[in-house]
Amino acid sequence: MASSCLRKRFLCAFIFVFCGFLGLITSPAEAAIKKYQFDVQVKKVSRLCHSKPIVTVNGGFPGPTIYVQEGDRLQINVTNHAQYNMSIHWHGLKQYRNGWADGPTYVTQCPIQTGSSYTYVFNVTGQRGTLWWHAHILWLRATVYGAIVIMPKQGTSFPFPQPYRETEILLGEWWNVDVETFVNKATRLGLPPNSSDAHTINGKPGPLFPCSEKHTFAMEVEQGKTYLLRIINAALNDELFFGIAGQNLIVVEVDAVYTKPFTTQAILIALGQTTNVLVKANQAPGRYFPVDNKTATAILQYRGVLNTILPSLPQLPNPNDTSFALSYNKKLRSLNTPNFPANVPLKVDRKLFYTIGFGKESCPSCINGTRFVASLNNISFEMPHVGLLQAHYFNLKGVFKTDFPDRPSTPFNYTGAPLTANLGTSTGTRLSKIAFNLTVELVLQDTNLLTVESHPFHLHGYNFFVVGTGIGNFDPAKDPAKYNLVDPVERNTVGVPTCGWTAIRFRADNPGVWFMHCHLEFHTGWGLKMAFVVEDGPGSDLSVLPPPKDLPPC
After folding, report:
1. Residue 452 forms part of a structural domain
2. Which residues form the Plastocyanin-like domain (predicted)?
3. Residue 3 belongs to some domain of the structure
4. Number of domains, the chain
5. What does the alpha-carbon distance between residue 89 and residue 135 come to, in Å, rounded to a whole number?
6. Integer CA distances (angstroms), 274 to 226, 239, 253, in order
7. Most buried among 211, 213, 297, 322, using CB within 10 Å?
8. pTM of the predicted model, to two decimals?
9. Which domain does 216 fall in, by range?
10. What is the pLDDT of residues 209-242, one digit of tens each?
11. How far, in Å, are 268, 276, 468 from residue 330 at the CA level?
12. Within a domain: residue 336?
């Protein structure tokens, strides 16, 4: 494969010492109202010999884990004490008819201003597993993020062996400089933003970095016991490989949906995705972990082993190992049992084909006189200054148009020789309107406009089935015959391969305005995003709920 079609991935290393900070799986409680208080505040934090103030929730980096049971109702009051406006997105929660609680700024709400509060209220219905929450404004999710653990409802259990203990593993990034400062500078000069200085595991880079002896996540395990790791890629710009030296990982869930179990020595986890794996402590007692120049490490240590023993490093795929990525993703399949069916839409009412492209636009104040833009179907999305959901619900005129095209206006050889031509990229707040309960097939096609990339796309308000993927140009005459319509993996975030395409299907049964965007933060900032308007169904019980009284003002 041509080098232009290789995407660099990064590695996360495990030294691990699983000790008392692992949470025991407890017997489920009655469905209840769970209340949390999130205080957004600035705290000084040191990593890699650098100290700086960062925005946190409740002073933690990462922030607190939300523990809830399927069927519970959550009330999370967010009070903003920081100098930045804020909003929180509950990534992967469907928010049925309740986009007011979804969180993306200027999509479903205006931001929570300094000194103000907003209470997110929503039900956790028909979902169980690992999700996460994060800031959804500016680049603040660099430090404002945390896990969501949804236990099965009372009387049900995991469809895999009960683990002895479990823990959350949040993979993130660290910059030595202030993130908002360098992003603003890069935007002003028309340059890509700086790469991070390190990856982190639960906010800690691990012992391969300077000044990090205290900043290593560790976990102690007992010989013969099985542990459940809830792994979340909360990074901003890097998809990651993850593995543990000497240990097999059994994948049992992705994006809070159970999968057919399979064994692997490493997982690929794109930005925004979650993966649950079982790890059986069946190796010779010792200390184990994962490396490139930014690889985060943690320690998995067998009980009774001395801390002076040097840990082992795992063998992970090369950062540009596309064959591993394709093979790994092909193994991901829905459980598809009577209790956990895969309700794949077999008949499609609406077919969409979106091309992913980069371009440059004039910028007289920028260093090279231009700046980067990114687009879907040659449209670079412009954020409004009023929440799109408010504009839709209250029928406000002039905020957005519903003429987002179903396919690009100019077809071309999408993954052929690198192109620099301007295909007429425009900027606008253009949404795609979908009638309630229609079944939708969306093909996302990477292109070689300026450069190629892999892109993790997240759809708010929905799960979808990944029915097909491939390298090269999507062929509508041949490729659908290869779709998996029996047990495709169900997700909320999917990677579009470099120089390739991905096909997803979903039923538009959740009315409201729902954001879809690349989860690479700098691509989102360049305009690689759009939104769907899903119309109300017949009757008030199939319509968007009224807005809460404390919705932040615009």
Report:
1. yes
2. 40-154, 167-303, 404-536
3. no
4. 3
5. 6
6. 19, 12, 8
7. 297
8. 0.94
9. 165-331
10. 999 888 899 989 999 999 999 999 999 999 999 9
11. 12, 17, 9
12. no
